[in-house]
Amino acid sequence: MKLLNTFTYEIKKSKFIGYYYEVDSEEEVQSILDDVKKEHKKARHFPYAYIIGPKVRRSDDKEPSNTAGMPIYNVLEKRNLDHKLIIIVRYFGGIKLGAGNLFRAYSKTASEVCEIELQ
Questions:
Q1: Is 30 strand, coil or helix?
Q2: Distance between CA 72 and CA 10 in Å, rounded?
Q3: How far apart, in whole angstroms, are the C-alpha atoms of residue 2 and residue 11?
Q4: Given the DSSP bridges, would you call strands 84-91 and 14-22 parallel, antiparallel or unpaired?
Q5: Are strands 2-11 and 55-59 parallel, antiparallel or unpaired?
Q6: Which residues are CB-contacts of 53 (< 8 A; sequence separation ≥ 6)?
C-alpha cells in the first residue's frame, strides 16, 4: 500500500478529506479503511471506490444512494486508474447539502486527490 496524495475540500461547514492509494489486494483495501476509520473517529462517513484489475467496488457508506461511491468510482474509471483506491472521509458540518451538492463534493474531492497521477 502506498499513499499517493491527500486533498481537503470544505463546503457549508462539511469537510471532505480525500485519500488516494496504490493497492494490490482487497485485504489491503480493508486494512487501509480500518486505519483511516481509526484516525478519524469523529467522522460520519467513509465512502470509497477502488479498481484492482477486474475487481471493482464502491460504497456510499450511509450517504444517500449513488451520491458518494459512484462519483468516486467515476473518477477512477474515467482516468483508467488501476490498482487505485480513493477514500473520502466526511465530517458533517451541521448543514444538509442535498444529493446534488454531495455528488459534486465527492466528485471534486476525488478528482483533486488523484491529480498527482496526471503529473
A1: helix
A2: 17
A3: 28
A4: antiparallel
A5: unpaired
A6: 82, 83
For residue 50, give the H/E element and its range: strand 48-52
- What is d(CA 15, CA 2) in angstroms, rounded to the nearest whole number? 23
Q: How many Å apart are CA 2 and CA 84, to the nearest integer?
A: 10
d(CA 99, CA 61): 14
What are the tens digits of pLDDT across the range 24-82?
999 999 999 999 999 999 998 999 999 999 999 999 999 999 999 999 999 999 999 99
Rounded CA-CA distance 117/99 in Å is 28
Amino acid at 102: L
Tell the CATH topology of 2-118: Ribosomal Protein S5; domain 2 (3.30.230)
